[in-house]
Amino acid sequence: MCDVDDVASLFFVPLALWVASCWFFVPLALLLSSYYLFVNFHIDVLQRANQLESEGRKIYHCEVGQPSSGAPQTVANAAVEALRGPPDTSRMGYTDAFGILPLRQKISQHYINNYNIPDEDRIDTDRIVVTTGSSGGFLLAFTACFDAGDVVAIASSGYPCYRNILQALGCELANVNISSEFKLTAEELRNEIQQRKDEGKKRIKGLILSSPSNPTGAMLSVHELKELCELCDEEGIRFLSDEIYHGITYGKKEATAIGFSSTAVVINSFSKYYSMSGWRLGWMILPKDLVDPVNVLQQNMFINAPTISQTAALKCWDDDTIEELEGHVARYRTSRDFILQYMKKFKEIPEENIAPADGGFYVYVDLGDDNVCLEKGLGSTEMCSQLLENEGVALTPGTDFEDPGNNRGDRRFRISYSGSIDTIEMAMDKFHSFWPTWVEQIKNAKKTEYKG
């Protein structure tokens, strides 16, 4: 972990050596011994879906968490205009490590406008760093906050890159079981803390959590987020709040961790709500003690986020842009409601096995014990494979998202509704047509298993 005094006294060379040791020595051993942890099955599904599509098959893409809409028109126009401008503006050279000041000012104003933060409590632009997507933010935050061997808590159902990057940096994971509502709240974290104390295990140094969540879509209430921030502060746990799905919510009020904690790190992105996934742009809000360490890390790892993306993103809060983006959210809501209603036709799947889908663009489903036969290899991975091959519907098995220490990954799957409404309607029709075939396979497999 880098603190301010270390950075001031030791600066670039020792830091570069330390970063190099994390990136070259630790990952090599981990990759050789634990390769399966670094495989993202949703990418495999996408590759197979694209292959079938190239062969002339009609594929209904519900596997990838990427808006199908592309960047807002105002943003795209701004990029073109910037590139066609005079040399002093079109050369797209380096920016400050933390990003161009006008963009950081707009991000600061965004928190005043959207989270009721008083103007006198405005977030200082010195605490805002524009990152190379949220992925760049994760790497900066993890390397600034944790040392190899530190224990970092993650939800048992969560974004797989948390797990993979942290382990590549030599951190240990505490997989915290989510609740029956598919959430990690202060209650679940408190139970994990106490259990580790009782068993004499190392204390938790950090927590990374997304709300709304990928893959579950579950979202912490304002009160739940406040409680979680307070618990982390009490226990000396650095809370990294992944808020990249903010803006895509369905009725519940959003809150940000910086409203409840002065030590929390907020990570956000232009990829989801702003529909700019390939532009590789995000941001972080840092506590004051991490400003200098992250500045040095950014200079050494990334130099700066893509300049053209920063320039174009200045248009993200224009009225015309927001109107276009809110149209996307309305489409997501329609698709979400359609899926949740349609899932009621799958009588074998109890309603409580379907995550609440409070935000984001995912519906996460647990098939339950009755609809899998893992001993015969008939889990969600095989179901998704058959559905893709036979019906042309691409869904993502839960193996990416779940704690590999249990079997829930092969019981669960994710439906992404970031595409068109027509795609969702056709995909769900085909899934429903396929479902009786799957149920019959499970029934026959269990009979054979019982006779054996």
Task: Describe what you observe in this structure.
The chain is an alpha/beta fold. The protein folds into two domains: 272 residues, Aspartate Aminotransferase, domain 2 (3-Layer(aba) Sandwich); 158 residues, Alpha-Beta Complex (Aspartate Aminotransferase, domain 1). α11 links the parallel β5 and β6. α8 crosses α12 and α14 packs parallel to α16. It is globular, with a radius of gyration of 22 Å.
Total strands: 12
Secondary-structure element sequence? HHHHEHHHEHEHEHEHEEEHHHEHEEEH
Rg result = 22 Å
What would the principal axes of the Cα set say about the shape? globular
Mean pLDDT comes to 91
Q: Tell me the strand order in the biggest sheet.
A: 2-8-7-6-5-3-4
Estimate the strand proportion: 5-15%
CATH class of the largest domain: Alpha Beta
CATH superfamily annotation of the largest domain = Type I PLP-dependent aspartate aminotransferase-like (Major domain)
The biggest sheet, with number of strands, parallel, antiparallel or mixed sense and barrel status, is: 7 strands, mixed
N-to-C terminal Cα separation, in Å?
Answer: 54 Å
Number of helices: 16
Q: Structural class, judged by helices and strands?
A: alpha/beta
- CATH fold assignment of the largest domain: Aspartate Aminotransferase, domain 2
Q: Note poorly predicted spans.
A: 4-37
Q: What is the helix content?
A: 40-55%
Number of structural domains:
2
The name of the CATH architecture of the largest domain is 3-Layer(aba) Sandwich
